[in-house]
Design goal:
The chain contains four helices and seven strands, in the order βαβαββαβββα. The relative contact order is 0.24. Helix 1 (about 10-20) packs across helix 2 (about 40-50). The longest helix has 12 residues, at about 10-20. The model has no long low-confidence stretch (mean pLDDT about 95). It has helices spanning about 10-20, 40-50, 90-95, 140-150; strands at about 5-10, 30-35, 65-70, 75-80, 100-105, 120-125, 130-140. The protein has a single domain, classed as Rossmann fold (3-Layer(aba) Sandwich). With about 150 residues, it is α/β, with parallel strands linked by helices. It starts with a strand and ends with a helix. It binds adenosine-5'-diphosphate and magnesium ion (MG). Adenosine-5'-diphosphate binds near residues 13, 14, 42, 105 and 131.
């Protein structure tokens, strides 16, 4: 399966990759973020928000599972860490199939609710400031999206 990798040396570089992606996002796009605590999932989401023209500060939704931001497109930011394996349906489809873009931290915890096609983004913590970012497109829409980003 084709995947795309980058190595970044700062939070800004990670945000820049996310901004390249954000420019090309459309309604109903879904990004599934994976990576340990402190890997950079929220940092990546900040880059998406910036790229969508969202000025509000994005932080991890600790008490709310889902936060909504307004930009060029609405951004639905989910952090489902606290759901653990409960697999509780919080009406996820309204977001996935809504008017905006959805980004999910710890997406595998709601595996059974995720759409079949999505962009999986894995972040590996390789050093204090070094991260490896891997895009794995699942489905034609996301394969196309990844090609556009690398061929820009
Ligand atoms: P997560 O949401 O995965 O738990 P966060 O984005 O909240 O992770 O935290 C990542 C932390 O790592 C931040 O403090 C960020 O400044 C720092 N960091 C250092 N280098 C990088 C990098 N290359 N990419 C992303 N974050 C980085
Ligand atoms: Mg986070």
């Amino acid at each position: 399966m084709k995947q795309y990798e980058w190595v970044t040396q700062s939070p800004e570089e990670t945000m820049n990759i996310a901004m390249q992606l954000a420019m090309r996002l459309q309604p109903q796009d879904v990004i599934a973020l994976e990576g340990d605590l402190g890997a950079g999932k929220t940092t990546f989401t900040k880059g998406l928000a910036k790229g969508l023209g969202i000025e509000r500060n994005v932080n991890s939704p600790t008490f709310t599972i889902i936060k909504e931001y307004r930009g060029r497109l609405p951004l639905y930011h989910m952090d489902v860490y606290r759901l653990e394996e409960m697999e509780e349906d919080l009406g996820f489809d309204e977001y996935f199939f809504g008017d905006g873009v959805t980004v999910v931290e710890w997406a595998h915890l709601i595996q059974s609710y995720l759409p079949k096609q999505l962009l999986k983004v894995r972040i590996h913590h390789e050093g204090e400031q070094q991260r490896k970012i891997i895009f794995q497109p699942i489905g034609e829409r996301y394969e196309q999206l990844c090609k556009e980003i690398v061929e820009k």
